[in-house]
Every structure is written in structure tokens, then in C-alpha cells.
Design a protein that fits this description.
490 residues, three-stranded parallel beta sheet, 20 helices
Length: 490
């Protein structure tokens, strides 16, 4: 276009639009662009190209996404007014709509050649706050990465918190956990238009709402979190101080377990000799049972598969949140009962410690637990199997002579030598040391079936030495009494 024509263009446009009829400028290259060129608009029905009308600030935001957009701020004011009013009905132009904005936003990173920066995002939210169709557009933005955080852009629907509302000591570990926080840059400070715009559309997260905090964290980041002792303690105090706001689901429970909060009981695992190990904080793996132990006289804790035993100082409400069907706090009797249930799987040191503790503290231990010990298969017998103390003959009692050395009624000699369990069971009086009707009947049956004269002689001696009063049992009338003529009826 010649300079002479360009100089006369304003006069020409003014003349053609003197009657406010946009049709008169159709097909004429009189619409300027910001780069100094001109193009022609056409009748609406005769063109497949539609030019979007953008105000100056809109053009600054979106021009890289639409090479055909018209910047109303760069054309004649009268023409711009007519295009806004009647252009979409006459020429191949349209006003900016939510669908146009969505299209721009989806291609914006490609148009920029890189992800959009915080400055652009700040300008976008400041514009959106005052756009007339903002309420129609906002729901469609949910999945777009337009929410500024200190670690980058997040989806608009993602949670967001304000760093200015968080105590500095707590802020450090929350930042390390990548809690989504609004940037602290001037573009998003407390007085910025962008922050005011975000407040128009959504609420910011409350860091005292532990549900909201856990929902905002990513599990892999939580699992990788390695804070120093001060940071972990600060975070732990905050969580336990706001447990009232916690409503657990599986995702929150998994993240809570993954935090290095949990102080292991100093006796877990047992190290023998009452030695206490340095306490340490751990994460709790999925699927592990959790409880805390509050012990008075027990010098040990059992070794339990897929179980974490926490120190008694750990918050009860926190422990209960970790385990849907929690055992809560276990005291000495409950831990003893658990130890007896898992006795066979315990190391020898703990097996001995269990029985020793029950002997030393027998006056403090419920009688039903001592009875349970008597019925627990803890003694290795002649054939290598385990039997309960109530089934076993005390090897130091007169009854021991009634049995062969490798009998299943006597402890195995190696077991007797290797442990202190038998002496503690003897103190608790849990093994058989006196003749009883059942023992007498069983030995008589053995004698009559095997013709064991030696056993018969020992049995008579035990009856005599213990002044045992024979009761009317059926076996008494069989041939078991040793005589020079063999075994005879009494």
C-alpha cells in the first residue's frame, strides 16, 4: 500500500463509515495490524476465516495463539466501536468467547515455544477477574495448568495454600513436601490483582485442616521427604495438634504412614540383657499393624512380622488414625499375651525373657496369663516337638524316673541345658511334679502294655514315698503291680 494511500486511509475510513454501515468496507484492505500491514474483512457468509476481536490487554495475552485476531486498540476508534456492536452480524469477525479463550489456552505453550511463565499467568488472572464472561469460562479451566505455585504451574482445580498464613518454622517442612503454595513474587503478593482474582473464584487451603494438607501432597514426594529433626518435630506437632480435623481415607492414611513421624519403642527389636537402643523415627509401610506399648515391668518386646511397635510417647489419636482397627495402646499384660501367642516364632533370647519376666513378676501378672503360659507349647521334648508345661514332667521331680530320657513327656536334654526356662516354669509350678490320677492311669496302661517291670517298680516307690492315696480308677485293677512272679493285680 502506497504511502499516499496510507496517509489518506483515515479519511477514506471515516467517509465509508459515515453512515455506520460496515458492509461498505468489505473486501477493502483497510484494517491495520500492529506490525503495520493491512488486511480486508469480508461479508460473513463469504469467508471461512473468522477474525476474533480483542481489546488491547486481550491482544497482549492471546495474540501469539491467533495470527488472525484483530487488536481493537490498534484500529480507528469509530471502526472499533462499530465492529464491537455489529461486526459479528455483518463481517467475518466475532467477539471473544469462552470457547475462544479455551482454544487459545490449549495452544498457548506451543505458541510460546515453552510453558507460560508466572508473569503471563498473573496477567491472565488479573484480566479474567473483570471479564464479563468469567463465570462461564472458569469451570472449563479446571484441568489446565494455570494455577501458580512455588514449584511451578498446577491444574486450576488443584488445592493451593498461602505461605503468608503459615508460621515460618512450619513453612520449611511444608515447602520440602511440595505443598502447593502461591508464589511469593510481587506478581502474586497479597495486594496483587492476580491474587485478588484467584480469591474471586476459589478458596485457599487452610493449613490447619490436615485433610486438606494430606490431599494436596503427592505420595512419592512424601515418601522421599527427609527433614531434619527440628523440621520433623515441627510438622509432627502441627499434625497432632490438629487431629480433630482429620477424617481418614486410604489415600490420607497412606501418606500419613509415609511421613517419618514414628518413634519406635526403644525395646523394639529386643537386643537382650535389657539393653536399650537409641530411639529412631521411621515410616510405617502399608499393611503393617501399628500399636504403641506402655511398659512398666517388661524388659522386652516380641518380634512380630509386619508389625511396628511405637513408643508410648506417640500421640494416641495419631496411632488410631494409622490403623483402622487399631490395638491402640498395649500395656504389660497385653504385650505378654501377644508374646505368648507368637511364642514359637520368637528368638531364644525373647522366649527366655518372656518366661523369666512372668516368674519374676508373678504377683503382678493376671492369673489367666500364667495359666495361658502353662498351656502354651514352649518346651522342646524328646522327639523335637513342642509341648506345654502342663503336659510336661518336671525333670527334677520324682516322676521323671517313670519316663525314658527321650520321652515326649520330658524336656529334651539339649533344651534343658540351653535355657533357663525350666527353672522359671518350676518356680511358677506349671510342670507336673506330683502324681495325679491322669498320670497314674497313663503309667499303668504303659506298664500293662509293655510289661515294663522297671517302670512298675519306680511307680510303686513314688506312690510310697509321696504317700499318694490311690483313687478308684479302672486301671488300678489291671496287672501292673511288680512281684517276684511278675506283674499282678493289686
Amino acid at each position: 500500500m502506497s504511502d499516499t494511500f496510507q496517509d489518506k486511509l483515515p479519511v477514506i475510513v471515516k467517509y465509508l463509515l459515515s453512515t455506520d454501515t460496515l458492509a461498505y468496507i468489505a473486501e477493502l484492505p483497510i484494517v491495520p495490524t500492529p506490525n503495520g500491514t493491512h488486511f480486508a474483512l469480508t461479508h460473513r457468509l463469504s469467508s471461512s476465516t473468522i477474525h476474533v476481536l480483542l481489546e488491547t490487554h486481550e491482544y497482549d495475552l492471546f495474540h501469539t495463539s491467533d495470527a488472525n485476531a484483530i487488536s481493537l486498540g490498534h484500529i480507528d476508534a469509530h471502526l472499533a466501536s462499530l465492529l464491537r456492536k455489529s461486526g459479528p452480524h455483518t463481517l467475518n469477525v466475532e467477539s471473544l468467547t469462552p470457547s475462544c479463550v479455551l482454544a487459545y489456552l490449549r495452544i498457548l505453550p506451543l505458541a510460546h515455544g515453552a510453558p507460560v511463565d508466572a508473569t503471563w499467568v498473573s496477567a491472565f488472572w488479573a484480566w479474567l477477574r473483570h471479564w464479563s464472561l468469567r463465570r462461564d469460562l472458569y469451570p472449563s479451566l479446571a484441568d489446565l495448568p494455570l494455577l501458580p505455585t512455588q514449584t511451578g504451574l498446577a491444574a486450576v482445580c488443584a488445592p493451593i495454600f498461602e505461605a503468608t498464613q503459615i508460621h515460618p518454622r512450619l513453612l520449611a517442612p511444608l515447602k520440602a513436601l511440595h505443598l502447593p503454595l502461591l508464589p511469593e513474587s510481587p506478581a502474586f503478593d497479597r495486594t496483587s490483582a492476580a491474587r485478588a482474582a484467584l480469591r474471586t473464584f476459589r478458596n485457599f487451603g487452610d493449613v490447619n485442616n490436615i485433610d486438606a494438607v494430606l490431599d494436596a501432597l503427592k505420595l512419592d514426594v512424601v515418601q522421599a521427604f527427609e527433614g531434619d529433626n527440628e523440621a520433623v518435630e515441627q510438622l509432627l506437632r502441627h499434625v497432632t495438634g490438629h487431629m480433630f480435623s482429620l477424617h481418614m481415607n486410604e489415600d490420607r492414611r497412606r501418606k500419613l504412614r509415609a511421613l517419618p513421624f514414628y518413634l519406635v519403642h526403644p525395646l523394639a527389636p529386643y537386643q537382650g540383657q535389657g539393653q536399650r537402643q537409641r530411639q529412631r523415627r521411621i515410616r510405617i509401610p502399608d499393611g503393617y499393624t501399628v500399636f504403641k506399648a506402655c511398659l512398666t515391668y517388661l524388659p522386652f518386646l516380641p518380634v512380630l512380622v509386619d508389625t511396628v511397635i511405637l513408643d508410648s510417647s506417640q500421640s494416641t489419636s495419631l496411632v488410631e488414625a494409622l490403623e483402622p482397627n487399631t490395638r491402640g495402646t498395649l500395656f504389660d499384660p497385653e504385650v505378654l499375651a501377644l508374646s505368648l501367642t507368637h511364642f514359637a516364632s520368637q528368638p531364644n533370647t525373647i522366649q527366655q525373657a518372656i518366661v523369666k519376666c512372668m516368674a519374676v513378676n508373678s504377683k503382678s501378672i493376671p492369673g489367666k496369663l500364667i495359666e495361658e503360659l502353662g498351656n502354651t507349647p514352649i518346651i522342646v521334648v524328646g522327639d523335637g516337638s513342642r509341648r506345654s508345661p502342663h503336659e510336661i514332667i518336671d525333670p527334677k521331680s520324682p516322676l521323671a524316673a517313670l519316663y525314658e530320657a527321650r520321652s515326649c513327656s520330658l524336656p529334651h536334654s539339649d533344651f534343658e541345658k540351653a535355657t533357663t526356662i525350666l527353672s522359671d516354669l518350676r518356680f511358677l509350678d506349671l510342670m507336673q511334679s506330683e502324681l495325679s490320677p491322669d498320670t497314674l492311669a497313663e503309667r499303668i496302661r504303659h506298664i500293662t502294655c509293655t510289661q515294663d517291670h522297671k517302670c512298675a517298680q519306680v511307680l510303686v516307690r513314688v506312690i510310697y514315698e509321696t504317700s499318694y492315696k490311690l483313687l478308684p480308677i479302672d486301671e488300678i485293677h489291671t496287672k501292673w503291680l511288680p512281684t517276684p512272679k511278675g506283674l499282678l493285680n493289686p
